[in-house]
């Protein structure tokens, strides 16, 4: 039952809401879970910006799934995912996602999602780096926008789903808030919901739930150059970490090789890998091809390889970018496949049918996250994690392009099935306190927050980027420590704001990334360090 109780307490107006299923985030993971759970109970979605603002909305290339069983097969998609993951994927999870994927895609098509078809009426499958076959379903070059649109259309029709926009989830509620001691070794931590900031009136509300699903997306903004929209500040991972839940493999941050080089634009606009799948060739600024010097798959090698090659070329040439050349394809084909990318480039004076596109790598995807099992359960009871904020084991040390939208759909379904049992037995304690704001003051020093965000992004970009070393990681850790202490001290005496909470979360996530990177004494997938340039014997996950 969704109820609202308003209490006057210590001059603050406190509001308590309750839900059967609480979902944090309105991207593909949160929305697809909500639509299923709503068949069995009241669902409350909290989301920190407009309802459609999410990484999902900006997905371009599409969804990798086996459609054409003549040329393609589950075995090939599994193999490509394992190769990209460079020895660290959970094979069982890869099989689950690939084999359950087609049924989940059928569901979103039934919800009304459109994917492009050929004139003959077959799905127009694209190819991206690391894929041995054409298997990427897409809607022009705005696939994520189309999926988000169709899911939200269904959400709006569902009377069992309430969506609270401009609500910022601050912290998970556990027995810690009832005065009980919990730490990382506790295996009986329960999640009872969240404290959330209503950003329109500045009040923190208590939201209680039988089941909570973290679907808060990625953390692109730990770096100063990213393709992610500004919502991607790692809030979910930081919240779970603070609540003493486990997070895994956070050193594996994926840099997309080809973000549009357009100084001053933040976040960066993505030039989809599908452009390379369509024949686009990476070239030096003098027009020479170079990928053959790095990998026999050339411009369509897996992302970690292409991003490192571009990084090396940029360092050698002293230029800030390389070029992507698609001029050999016809204007008609380019416009049919990439209307959004074409329009964006034209806006800044580049006609991609006649000009090469300047591109450079940008932080794009968080391959690690909240550690979950095969049903999406986190290490905290009654808390699930889904989508980019989770670490299911699918991506290993490097995500295969266009596998993430599929992963979110498959795990949203698995969580839904599992959560039905959990929610039936769940009891919410009736003595959970309201958010405590005693002793805090309104800040008139927002520059402290802005400065620390910039400093953190700069140090992460300079010291914890595509190529790492012990020396750089140690420097990063020392500086993060200072920023962390300063921010915690400020946080304790300041009335919370979204910007302050995001800074705190970004710092926490950066700290975990660096700590994980320091522990990995080898190069694997997206983690490349000059001190240990090859694979170590055996494999291990980094878990905190
Ligand atoms: P998101 O879609 O990011 O949703 C997260 C939600 O959580 C948002 O609504 C956000 O506002 C909300 N939120 C976050 N923190 C809080 C908080 N504290 N309180 C309340 N709400 C919060 N993947 C593919 O498979 N194929 C592609 O073609 C592809 N292209 C991409 C292109 C771009 C430019 C980008 C950035 C990513 C792309 N990806 C692609 C990756 C993919 O889009 C994401 O991994 C996926 O959409 C993540 O979905 P999600 O639901 O987990 O998170
Ligand atoms: C792209 O279109 O290049 C993005 C695909 C992805 O991140 O999976």
CATH domain fold name of the largest domain: FAD/NAD(P)-binding domain
Domain tally: 3
List how many beta strands DSSP finds: 19
| CATH architecture title of the largest domain | 3-Layer(bba) Sandwich
Distance between the termini: 35 Å
**Helix share, percent:** 25-40%
Mean pLDDT: 95
Secondary structure class reads alpha/beta
- The number of distinct helices, counting runs of at least 4 residues, comes to 14
Question: Secondary-structure blueprint of this entry?
Answer:
Elements: E1 4-9, E2 12-24, H1 28-37, E3 43-47, H2 55-58, E4 63-64, H3 74-85, H4 91-111, E5 136-137, H5 143-157, E6 161-165, E7 167-173, E8 193-198, E9 203-214, H6 235-242, E10 247-248, E11 253-260, H7 273-277, E12 281-283, H8 303-317, E13 322-325, H9 331-337, H10 339-347, E14 357-366, E15 369-371, E16 383-385, E17 390-391, H11 404-425, H12 446-463, E18 467-468, H13 470-492, H14 498-519, E19 528-529
Parallel strand pairs: 2-3, 2-9, 3-6, 9-16, 15-17, 18-19
Antiparallel strand pairs: 1-2, 4-5, 7-8, 8-9, 10-15, 11-14, 12-13, 13-14
Helix pairs in contact: 1-5, 1-11, 3-4, 4-11, 6-14, 12-13, 12-14, 13-14
The structure holds flavin-adenine dinucleotide (FAD) and succinic acid.
The site of succinic acid has 9 residues, from helix 7.
């Amino acid at each position: 039952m969704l109820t609202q109780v308003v209490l006057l307490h210590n001059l603050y107006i406190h509001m308590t809401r309750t839900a059967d299923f609480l979902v944090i985030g309105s991207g593909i993971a949160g929305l697809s879970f909500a639509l299923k759970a709503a068949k069995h109970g009241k669902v409350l979605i909290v989301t920190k910006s407009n309802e459609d603002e999410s990484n999902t909305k900006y997905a371009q290339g599409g969804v990798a799934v086996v459609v054409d069983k003549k040329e393609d097969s589950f075995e090939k998609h599994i193999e490509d995912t394992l190769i990209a993951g460079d020895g660290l994927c959970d094979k069982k999870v890869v099989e689950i996602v690939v084999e359950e994927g087609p049924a989940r895609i059928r569901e979103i098509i039934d919800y009304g999602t459109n994917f492009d078809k050929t004139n003959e009426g077959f799905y127009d499958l694209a190819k991206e780096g690391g894929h041995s076959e054409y298997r990427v379903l897409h809607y022009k070059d705005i696939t994520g926008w189309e999926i988000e649109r169709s899911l939200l259309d269904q959400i709006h029709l569902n009377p069992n789903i309430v969506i609270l926009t401009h609500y910022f989830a601050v912290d998970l509620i556990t027995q810690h808030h009832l005065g009980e001691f919990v730490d990382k070794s506790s295996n009986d931590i329960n999640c009872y919901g969240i404290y959330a900031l209503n950003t329109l009136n500045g009040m923190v509300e208590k939201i209680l739930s039988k089941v909570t699903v973290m679907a808060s997306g990625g953390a692109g903004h730990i770096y100063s150059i990213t393709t992610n929209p500004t919502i991607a500040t790692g809030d979910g991972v930081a919240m779970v970490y603070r609540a003493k839940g486990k997070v895994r493999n956070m050193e594996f941050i994926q840099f997309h090789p080809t973000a549009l080089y357009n100084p001053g634009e933040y976040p960066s606009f993505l030039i989809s890998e599908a452009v390379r799948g369509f024949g686009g060739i990476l070239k030096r600024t003098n027009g020479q091809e170079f990928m053959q010097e790095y990998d026999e798959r050339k411009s369509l090698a897996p992302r970690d390889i292409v991003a490192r090659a571009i990084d090396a070329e940029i360092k050698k040439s002293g230029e800030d970018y390389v070029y992507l050349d698609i001029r050999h394809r016809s204007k008609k084909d380019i416009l049919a496949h990439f209307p959004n990318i074409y329009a964006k480039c034209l806006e800044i004076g580049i006609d991609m049918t006649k000009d090469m596109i300047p591109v450079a790598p940008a932080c794009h995807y968080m391959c690690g996250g909240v550690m979950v099992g095969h049903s999406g359960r986190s290490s905290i009871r009654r808390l699930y994690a889904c989508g980019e904020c989770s670490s299911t084991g699918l991506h290993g040390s490097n995500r295969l392009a266009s596998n993430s939208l599929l992963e979110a759909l498959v795990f949203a379904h698995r969580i839904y099935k599992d959560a039905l049992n959990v929610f039936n037995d769940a009891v919410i304690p009736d003595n959970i306190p309201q958010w405590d704001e005693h002793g805090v003051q309104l800040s008139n020093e927002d520059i402290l927050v802005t400065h620390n965000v910039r400093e953190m992004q700069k140090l992460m970009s300079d010291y914890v980027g595509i190529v790492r070393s012990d020396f750089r990681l140690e420097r990063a850790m020392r500086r993060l420590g200072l920023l962390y202490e300063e921010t915690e001290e400020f946080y304790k005496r300041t009335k919370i704001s979204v910007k302050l909470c995001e800074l705190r979360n970004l710092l926490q996530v950066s700290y975990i990334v660096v700590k994980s990177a320091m522990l990995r004494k080898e190069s694997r997938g997206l983690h490349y360090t000059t001190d240990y340039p090859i694979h170590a014997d055996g494999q291990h996950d980094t878990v905190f």
